[in-house]
Specification:
alpha/beta; SNF2 N-terminal domain-containing protein; globular; 134 residues; 4-stranded parallel sheet
Length: 134
């Protein structure tokens, strides 16, 4: 699952943290039909909850998890405040995570947009010059 964490309300964050911890070990394989499982193709399926938040609230969400969840619970959180951090992570890191907290700054960066274009639109050419220079 995923959510947009765009509000600083403590009650909303607390509810989401509680929901995530309660549903933490729901088996993904059981949630998908046999056909959906076979059709996943090259997509990597993760049981982590994705939280995308404005950069100004990123630390707030991270603090709420630390404040509300006992470390003994073993909740695995990946924090991605920037593209530099994203580049250092592996697929295995995401598969092991319970929560992936991402700053919207990362998703709005030119580097991330260019990577998304290369992956989703192979062969796309982006023109930097004037229209007459094509």
């Amino acid at each position: 699952g995923g959510l947009i964490g765009d509000g600083p309300a403590r009650s909303a964050a607390a509810c989401m943290v509680a929901l995530i911890t309660e549903a933490r070990h729901g088996p993904l394989r059981a949630a998908l039909s046999q056909q959906e499982w076979q059709e996943r193709g090259r997509r990597v399926l993760s049981e982590a909850t994705l939280i995308v938040t404005p950069h100004c609230l990123f630390d707030h969400w991270l603090h709420e998890f630390k404040r509300l969840v006992n470390p003994a619970f073993g909740l695995r959180i990946i924090s991605v405040p920037s593209c530099a951090r994203l580049k250092r992570l592996t697929v295995a890191s995401f598969l092991a995570a319970d929560v992936v907290l991402v700053s919207s700054r990362c998703l709005l960066s030119d580097a991330y947009q260019a990577l998304g274009d290369r992956l989703s639109k192979p062969g796309l050419r982006i023109w930097d010059g004037e229209p007459g220079e094509r």
